[in-house]
Design a protein that fits this description.
Length: 221
């Protein structure tokens, strides 16, 4: 149930999901640091994808479940050590995604000098819209908006990325062989914040799609 997703009505099975940390300067600043000079990646397994995109579930073990709206890129063919130009031709779809984060666990792990993967890779930590083709889009100039209960929290543009999408794919391919159906979550603009049971979230990327979902406590499901 977790593994099937959609690209223009065609079902596919997502591979690995690479995520980029602090790829918008204003978000890096709100997290208390500068943006890294080279992309920093972490991974979510495909089991983190929310099976029903109308509902996000807050795990019982976190008290700070946060939203991060991100442009998600689907890789269409294998690439390793690719150039930025080759990276562009490897993109075959884009979607709206939410990189859900258990911020309390992440901060505890950072303070302890321990890996914080669990705070990003748990079941339900990735919400995706259907994918659409990228050919007609300028991926370097897309507006991202996320509102909670009708109040805007995040508003940005993909032009504000520190490392643009071709650079991200090329950098990722130096460490990880990228395969067809791998996904890259390209970072979030400022305004990340806590979600509570009963919240209604609308996340939109102009020309790409929209997510509209309810937030529910695990205990209430
Ligand atoms: Mg993120």
């Amino acid at each position: 149930m977790y593994y099937a997703y959609w690209m223009n009505q065609t079902t596919f099975t997502p591979g690995k999901i690479l995520c980029v940390a602090r790829n918008y300067r204003d978000h890096a600043k709100e997290m208390g640091s500068d943006a890294p000079s080279e992309p920093v990646f972490f991974l979510k397994p495909c089991t983190s994808i929310v099976p029903d995109p109308s509902k996000a579930i807050i795990p019982s073990w976190t008290n700070d479940f946060q939203h991060e709206i991100e442009l998600v890129v689907r890789i269409g063919r294998m690439c390793r050590n690719c150039t930025a130009a080759e990276a562009v031709s490897a993109i075959d779809g884009v979607a709206v995604g939410i990189d859900f984060t258990a911020r309390d666990m992440q901060q505890r792990r950072k303070q302890a000098g321990m890996p914080w993967e669990q705070a990003k890779a748990f079941d339900g930590a990735c919400l995706l819209s259907p994918f659409v083709g990228a050919d007609a889009l300028d991926l370097s100039a897309l507006d991202l908006d996320l509102s909670v209960n009708g109040v805007v929290r995040q508003q940005g543009n993909s032009s504000q990325m520190v490392h643009d999408i071709p650079a991200l794919i090329a950098a990722a391919s130096r460490y990880f062989t990228l395969e067809e159906n791998d996904l890259i979550m390209t970072g979030t603009p400022a305004g990340v914040g806590r979600l509570e049971h009963g919240d209604r979230v609308v996340a939109t990327i102009a020309g790409v799609g929209a997510l509209d979902f309810a937030v529910v406590d695990e205990g209430a499901v």
